[in-house]
Amino acid sequence: MRAKLKRLSIWDHDDMCLSADVEKLEAENAQLKAQCDLWNKKYTDLMQSLEYAAITNSELNELRAENARLTDSLQWEQNRADRIGTHGDGCWKWGPSHYECALREIGRLKTGGGE
Questions:
Q1: Angle at CA 24, nearest 5°, toward 10 and 39?
Q2: Annotated domain spans of the chain
């Protein structure tokens, strides 16, 4: 009988130790689940940020290409406007593209062909 009581008390002691260990493990498990949920949220937020950055980068590249196209077009138009040979009476007054015309007008006035 005494051995039976000893055995029962050992089992009771082991059960109490085991239930304390189980409670400790359950608390750790709950804490790990909470951390996992937090990391999953951070991961989701990061993936959304990366997706937004990829879209933004794509749009930025399109805008850069459009800017380059417009710059090329503007340069072509400016070069074309500079090459057009529009001259007329008093064209030397029309600006820098008629500098040579202004020099000829000065030469003409110096030689007395002015008035």
A1: 160
A2: 2-84
